[in-house]
């Protein structure tokens, strides 16, 4: 967990530095990735800090007394808000790529950085609303008194936990957490499938050297976003499954489809996967896109790698589907403040 925390903060902060340092990286797509980056920093900072604080201050795993009266609301509320912001952002940039590739001229007229910032602000407001049931539930504090056997003198006699005893509120919180995840997964998979089909067709149409170069750059970004979104759902699925599984068990103390013998381990590994999700994105950007690698080199070493990025706005007037898509892609990639 400390390693994940350090990597998450360093790598995501490095990406934010690159966007601030390199003007041509301030594109609409990267605005969404910056929003995702901020959410990842918040999530991993509060999620891992919560576990480390509890580990250092109490020998009892469920002891949350270190957080105090409002600590549970703050810690778990921010974690939920960051999760929902990440989820909504993945959907937004998938929709943005879908519109850009499928309806390039319409996207060119509609797309703007102001509109993007408004949508990003909406993701945060919506995330706060979605996190309210969980925050209300975590506002309940329960005190337990223990008498430990000999040899456990260092264990606390008083243990505090925060969770809701209201069954309806618990079901609501889990539903609000899992249902948007499932709906978003369906939307992202369908839109990415359409995008892939469209790209395969366009790759056969591209003719000029400029079109081939533009298609290559565009396709690298599309593949990068595709991998980012798919890994997001893969890495978070085990935890979402663990959250909803007990709800379908007739035994109130049951663990649903997950055997009780491995449920605890499942939860722990699911948490680690969620932390990896908050670490891995900057690595994906550099591994899959030459444009992002050049930007990182320029930001940290003050020099270009390979060809210099140019803010060219001259395009062919061919009106094929492929060229119209390339036109919007180059505009969306090169526009900056």
How does this structure look, described?
The relative contact order is 0.14. Helix content is 74%, strand content 3%. Helix 3 runs antiparallel to helix 5 and helix 8 packs across helix 9. With 337 residues, the chain is mainly alpha-helical. It has a two-stranded antiparallel sheet. It contains ten helices and two strands; from the N terminus they run αααααββααααα. The chain has a single domain, classed as Up-down Bundle (Rhopdopsin 7-helix transmembrane proteins), CATH 1.20.1070.10. The two termini are 38 Å apart. The longest helix has 39 residues. The C terminus is likely disordered.
Topology, number of strands: 2
Low-confidence stretches: 306-337
How is the largest sheet built, in terms of strand order? 1-2
CATH architecture: Up-down Bundle
Structural class category: mainly alpha
Number of helices: 10
The domain count comes to 1
Largest sheet: 2 strands, antiparallel
- Rg over CA atoms, rounded to whole Å, is 23 Å
CATH class: Mainly Alpha
Global geometry = elongated
Share in β-strands: under 5%
What is the typical, i.e. mean, pLDDT?
Answer: 82
C-alpha termini separation:
38 Å
Level of helix content? over 70%
Write down the secondary-structure element order. Answer: HHHHHEEHHHHH
- The CATH fourth-level homologous superfamily: Rhodopsin 7-helix transmembrane proteins
CATH topology: Rhopdopsin 7-helix transmembrane proteins
Domain G-protein coupled receptors family 1 profile: 11-285
Subcellular location: Membrane
InterPro entries: GPCR_Rhodpsn, GPCR_Rhodpsn_7TM
Organism: Saccoglossus kowalevskii (Acorn worm)
